[in-house]
Amino acid sequence: TANNIKDAIEFWDLTNRQDWDIVERSQLGIGSRRYEPGPYSPRESVPAAWDREYLRLMGRG
After folding, report:
1. What range(s) does the Aromatic-ring-hydroxylating dioxygenase alpha subunit C-terminal domain occupy (predicted)?
2. Which residues contact 54 (CB under 8 A, 6 or more apart)?
3. How far does CA 33 lie from the centroid of its chain?
4. How far is the C-alpha of 45 from the C-alpha of 26, rounded, in Å?
5. φ, ψ at 35 (rounded to 5°)
6. pLDDT in tens, the chain (61 residues)
């Protein structure tokens, strides 16, 4: 129904706004002079694997 569609649009609009806020804040933190990257957490296996593959292809891993 139209109400369900409206509710879904409102929900995803809110979700996307919250996600953008988190991403923007994270980027500000990473841009700080005091930021030091740390190891990946066990929940970040996909980004860690991507980094390893990239470094391998670039001849650095």
Report:
1. 5-58
2. 61
3. 20
4. 19
5. -70, 130
6. 888 999 999 999 999 999 999 999 999 999 999 999 899 999 999 999 999 999 999 998 6
